[in-house]
Amino acid sequence: GQQLNQSPQSMFIQEGEDVSMNCTSSSIFNTWLWYKQDPGEGPVLLIALYKAGELTSNGRLTAQFGITRKDSFLNISASIPSDVGIYFCAGQLFKAAGNKLTFGGGTRVLVKP
Amino acid sequence: NAGVTQTPKFQVLKTGQSMTLQCAQDMNHEYMSWYRQDPGMGLRLIHYSVGAGITDQGEVPNGYNVSRSTTEDFPLRLLSAAPSQTSVYFCASSSRQGGTQYFGPGTRLLVL
To answer: How many angstroms separate the CA of residue A93 from the nearest CA in chain B?
Structure first.
């Protein structure tokens, strides 16, 4: 099946830093989504991207849909402690049966000790 | 409006036992899905449903059964649990018109 490669697998943040993560695919998606998962919870949608080249912001989060439709990145500016969690990218095909998603492996964001 | 609810939150099974993971949504969504989450692998689709009475297989369906008798409920059955099914299971729902999936809080399953 389709694979989404998400990097980095984990990162440490210091309050106030900007952080970035990205996701690449071997095939095209029509929609890219970014989710965040807090410990013990299900993933929550952060940003949805529907058009190649689209750049969308949600507060301190900015995500872009790559021109080739095979990649996306997420940037968090001025990170704060509550940004800790696991971030997942997900791709969706146009009119996917059941709206099914293909997920990346996740980027675990931790606070620098 | 509770969204997507899942029970139980945590379960321990012995190899060979059967159980049903419950999922319910109160948003009148047509589509419902089951995913499993394993470390480093993201979420993988097990089964999904596009409406009552209609189900289909996802990426990793083996060892799991589903049925959808009502719009609200989408239970996942493990007929004979195996240690490889130790995982966190998430149920999700979405509307036919909009692709956004809403996830439940998950069920953590340990098979010994």
So the answer is: 10
